[in-house]
Structure prediction request, 164 residues.
Amino acid sequence: MKILVTNQSLGFVALLKNPVHLFAFGLGSGLAPYAPGTAGTVAAVLIYALLPEFSLEINLLIIFASFLLGVYLCGKTAVDLGVHDHSGIVWDEWVGYFITVIWFPKQWPWLVAGFILFRFFDIVKPWPISWLDRQVDGGLGIMLDDVLAGIFAALVLLFISPYL
Prediction:
């Protein structure tokens, strides 16, 4: 499998040998041939489901650190590939999904509803998500639209929570 970028083609193995790219591509989940953002989010659901329970404060600290790390990972990978927001870069989906579900019980109805809502806001990109996506460059831009999609999804999940 080759990853097509503007300046070069990287093989699957070569791409994942670089730890920055490995994490930016969601441990390889972003290399799915179809809907890599959705595949990356599925990986995020599974990873989140397997993580131990932490206090909200620890979870927020982990998300904040993951966001800061993601600005670097996504920005560096985008520069290395020569593509601003390569569809295979899914670390931002992981952080956005975690933001969506961190406030709710770690049970499958919540995880699935969070997945559906996060993917909706990440794909549709209503304002101001679409504005951020167009206006902010680099790793920060790659991360911010997914963070906001995660916040929007969490707010809708909060609104529908009595029905879950």
About this structure: The two ends are 41 Å apart (CA to CA). Residues 48 and 98 are 7 Å apart (CA to CA). The longest strand covers residues 2-4. Helices lie at 12-17, 19-24, 36-50, 56-81, 91-101, 108-124, 129-135, 138-160.
